[in-house]
Amino acid sequence: MNFTIDGMSATATYFQTFAFAFFLFTVALHIIFAAAVFVDASKRDTKLVGPVLWAAATLIIGPFFAAAYWVVNRLAVIEELRTLYSQKTELTNEEKIQRHREELNKRRSQT
């Protein structure tokens, strides 16, 4: 039995429907990721290019480029956090040195 719809087999019609649904899903996914990248990039100081170009590239290339955005910009955030932590550690060491000097001065003044 070979079913046909307007000269096309049922298998071909099913395949076209699946392909169209997959296309719509892919377009929706690209739009969602591009919007998410734009919103995130607008909130922070992005590396390399601005939020509009990050979003446009994500719209065209899709979730893979959203991953590239995350790597480039989130690793920069990790580096900033490391820098802040090291500065905090340095400030703590400077405070320790200052306290040590104060204690030495107190001892000298007591003797």
How would you characterize this protein structure?
The chain is mostly helical and 111 residues long. The protein has one domain (4-110). 84% of the residues lie in helices and 4% in strands. It contains three helices and two strands, in the order E-E-H-H-H. It has a two-stranded antiparallel sheet with strand order 1-2. Strand 1 (4-5) and strand 2 form a beta hairpin. The radius of gyration is 30 Å and the shape is rod-shaped. Keywords: Membrane, Transmembrane, Transmembrane helix. This is Cardiolipin synthase N-terminal domain-containing protein. The chain crosses the membrane at residues 12-39, 51-72.
Task: Give a short synopsis of this structure.
The protein has 111 residues and is mostly helical.
The secondary structure category is mainly alpha
In total, the number of strands is 2
The dominant shape is rod-shaped
> Could you say how many structural domains there are in total?
1
Q: What is Rg? A: 30 Å
Unreliable stretches covering 5 or more consecutive residues:
none
Q: Average pLDDT across residues?
A: 82
> Major sheet: size, sense and barrel closure?
2 strands, antiparallel
What is the ordering of alpha helices and beta strands?
A: EEHHH
Helix percent reads over 70%
How would you classify the quaternary structure? single chain
Give me the side-by-side strand order of the main sheet: 1-2
Supply the number of helical segments: 3
Q: How far apart, in Å, are the first and last alpha carbons?
A: 111 Å
Strand content: under 5%
